[in-house]
Hints:
The chain is mostly helical and 165 residues long.
Amino acid sequence: FRLFPLREHGMNWRARPLTCQEIQAFRKSKEVMDRFIRAYKLMLGFYGINLVKEETGELERAENWRERFENLNRFSHNNLRITRILKCLGEMGYEDYQVHLVKFFLTETLVEETLPNVKRSALDYFLFTVRSKEKRRELVHYAWQHFKPQSSFVWGPRDKLQRYR
């Protein structure tokens, strides 16, 4: 059984994808959802991130963030796991959590510049796991505002980004 199961095949071809019925059953089980949040917190801790508010999904750097970010920068396979976690958050009904996690990585890569080797994954993959079209647009605009040079930003049409409210 996978920690963050999806309705698609991952790197482990022996693991079978989830069905919509299984997802619904998981979402109805308090025990399963509690375990899911525990697993999410565990992985965040591994990445140097703390879940500040379970109600909202708000995040902050953990005390050991420098050491953990070094690991994230060095090993790109973590980016695949993060993409999987983001997709699974959406499947399990934690779309607000998706937004906070993507914004966290956009901030760390584009604003703080602490995770340069995660930047492409954040822009190419993490952003587009967000289910809410409105929230995804907000995040693309946020990324565009902080991307340098802005003229090289290819993740959204410049004319729409300039007019975005």
